[in-house]
User: Fold these one by one.
Assistant:
Number 1:
Amino acid sequence: MEKFTEITGTAAPMPLVNIDTDMIIPKVFLKTIKRSGLGVNLFDEMRYDREGNEIPDFVLNQPQYRDAQILVAGDNFGCGSSREHAPWAILDFGIRCVIAPSFADIFYNNCFKNGILPIPLPQEQVDVLMKDAEKGSNARMTIDLEGQTVTTSDGETFPFEVDAFKKHCLLNGLDDIGLTLEKGAAIDSYEDSLGQSRPWV
């Protein structure tokens, strides 16, 4: 998993509440078990018409937001089913951070396991960040995980809270497999001792 320390980039404004996982990645795209390739279908039903043409008014189809690394959204982001394809699609598009007043619990935890930083902030602070994002690609926001701050293009800074263990995993690029591999020496030692004491196992 790619490490997350600090990013400075364009933030896309999406002031919708209750954006569920089916909106993020519709169920028709859940056939794959690969984490890559889903970015093109992120928000598919909002991004494309029935003929597969881009809908110009949708935020991620606008030139200034095509390379957005940050998403500023409404309350209860990621609600609905627990599909892990939702963070896969967000990350594959290139978004590393989602800011909203609140998140669905399962989606929130899945983000950390896939290298995405979800930041819950009070509504009034999200409103400020939403207005900053609406300025387009010239307004670049900075997310500092080590310092736990979000800084607007105008220099206004908001602190955020994050679980210490989840922060450690993001800073070091550790998913569940990476965490297990960190214990590789201890696992090898245990298997060696087990083989000697219980060779029939």
Number 2:
Amino acid sequence: MKKIYLLAVTLFAAFTVQAQDVVKFAPLDNSPVDISYFPNKAVKFKKTDTPNPVIKVTYARPSVKGRTIFGDVVKFGEIWRVGANENTEIKFYKDVTIGGKKVAAGYYSLFAIPEKDKWTIIINKELDLWGGYAYDEKKDVVRVSVPVKNVSDVIEALSIAFTTKDSVANLVIGWDKTTVELPITVK
């Protein structure tokens, strides 16, 4: 009887362990999440001579995949989350100025209203949204109109990077054959 009991306990334990080992991980997302920092190498190298981050943008990177993006996938004149999936978030590690308006350090959402020749870039207080479906204009911190720059080569995956001139960090958004730049003054 002890042998049967021991066998039953051993089989039960083996089955339980095997059942716990089976984890179904989600497949790779079609629009993987990425992060851009200003200064660009602020967190990639831990050296004392590398500056601390001032701005961090977390966003999902959809691809063109042969589609017409602006005016079709992303409608002109409509709010867009600047990416895919959850809305894009931007963190300012210290106070900045955007469009002449002071923006306090903290986390915000980044939205845009694309048009053919200009975009309205929006910094908004609301966080943790899926896309722009629950966007609330009353929570806007700042809105800035920026010109569209057309490029000749397709930028396959939505990309966000920073360029610098003096105390201005230009947040550059590029996708398909379009780029825009949002000047952010850093003190």
Number 3:
Amino acid sequence: MAYNIVTIAGSLRKDGFSLKIANALAKLAPGSLKLEVITPAGISFFNQDLEGAPPADWLAFREKLQRSNGVLFVTPEYNRSIPGALKNAIDVASRPYGKSSFLGKPVGIISNSPGPLGGVSAAKHLQTILPGISGPILQQPEIYLNGVGDAFDADGSLTKDSLKTVLQQYIDAFAAHVAKNQG
């Protein structure tokens, strides 16, 4: 049996590095994991006034997470944080209060950047946001991918061997984390 993992690529860009990394992870995942790669596109803005009758897109996103066995975040860094669309998706999924769709789900965090810092600030913000609304977060290995600008070919396939090695190590560790934290 494979564990179903919702893999949220935090960028809305159709050719974003986060989406390419998430798709590469789906190909590298061991047989124990099945990654469904999504983006926050189409999730309407969170507004607490709508909680009594949540929009259909909120309900669909929450149900997708609730049916999963874990969640993997792959995020770029925007202005030293996560993209607003990703934060909105987290806000939508974490409500109503006390009924977060992330509760009990093992979580992984991968940040990335074409620059030298690898999106470390974005990853740290997720590490601040998620406790209390999610399940256990994979602590080691930490992964902040830098220099990803030349890691993919024109078709979006991963071509950088050093990145492939790091992603393989991470997805294998995440698979063990998910297996360990299943109720």
Number 4:
Amino acid sequence: MLYAFGFERIGVVVSDLYFVDPDPLPGQASPERGVRLELRLFERGEPSGSIYAARPITIARPLWRVDLLQDADAAPGTFDRTHHHPDFDGWIPGPRVFVEELSADPLTWLAGKLSDVPALLKETGVSPGELTEADAAGLRAAVPEITDTVRRLLERVWAGELGRPTDGSGPATSARISWL
């Protein structure tokens, strides 16, 4: 499932995720499941044909990512694999960064990061020119709705409705089942 929140030049996308890491960190070889959230650039195209034509929308390159993941066999709310990626090289994320506060209280940590987008962009090394004041204000106003969406997706992952392997036909050496 994919949710998108678009503002002026940036937006947030959120999806459930099932992941088998092809190069896991020590002690993290089992599948992971949870929710992925990315701060992305959004691009609006021009309608073609008439004023009534649908407008093309592109969800473009990622600026920042947070993965609220845990061992797929762990009890709900474990968050033992929860991390973020504060930087990207184009489409490729930098290394996983584990933060104690993120694993302890993911939604509060996430709300704090999304409430201060200029500081978040500074932390990621993205130029402040990538966003407008309307982006920052719109995102700040949407934080409760975004964190509620993340919470509801996590609940559905924990209930076994989302964030699942495709068919269970055997152990995979790597897999990513998600929109993101």
